[in-house]
Design brief:
Layout (H helix, E strand, L loop, with lengths): L2 H14 L6 H11 L11 H19 L1 H11 L5 H27 L1 H7 L3 H21 L13 H12 L8 H11 L4 H23 L6 H7 L2 H26 L6 H20 L2
Length: about 280
Amino acid sequence: MTTLQAIVLALLQGVTELFPVSSLGHAVVLPRLLGWTIDQHSPAFLPFLVVLHLGTAAALLLYFWRDWLALVLAFFGQGPVAERKAQWRLLWLIVLATVPAVILGFLFEKFFRNLFGSPVAAAFFLIVNGGLLFAGERLRRQSGTKLLGEMSWQQAILIGLWQSTALIPGISRSGATMVGGLLGGFHHREAAHFSFLIATPIIIGAAVLEVPHLFHPGVAAEFGPVVWIAGLVAGVTAYLSTAFLMRYFRRHDFEALDPFAYYCWGAGLIALALLFFVV
């Protein structure tokens, strides 16, 4: 992988991880469409993607630093009692929403890892993702107004199950979790906020498992320092994407996911056509 290719993938990751259009799906499909000679079955490819996600996690920590600081202070027993209780409750909701993806990712790791090297599957599920976003807007409760403080533990687990679908390249983690929040009666802004909060532990967890593989002799030689440059680029792009989306969802609460659904349908169909008839 060249430096230019790594940076292009990093820019793509920084945008598509937070936008509900599947970063993994784009990372799997784009190299094949552009004719890049990148071995997506290589032991280094998945750890490389995880480093890009790690940059995204850093951006989310930075953007939502007040949320995470409040959670840390509550964990160590600091602050007013009522505030500590609210933060402890939010912390447990984040944990509950994270558990399903951890369990399913562990049980079906080999199956999902094989999908990372299948551009056709990723393009197909990108179309499915568009359908998920479009249907979610129409099945949601009209004018959702719930706040995060009103989320139940059952709703957190359901959102976690929605998040688990993003183990499949082409299905957006942020999109699936936002749909789960909308179906629970939450405003787009609140659904997006919770989606971005629960992204951080799941991304860091994946990094703990995969990043050490980059330090194996053969893998390290394949990428070198460019992987960390790409991670930084992904982080900066992700921060800008987060700022844009939080403002977007604050101002739009009517069919706000529809533009992303249309994009997924178009991108998925074009990718499938190119994969079958041109590439």
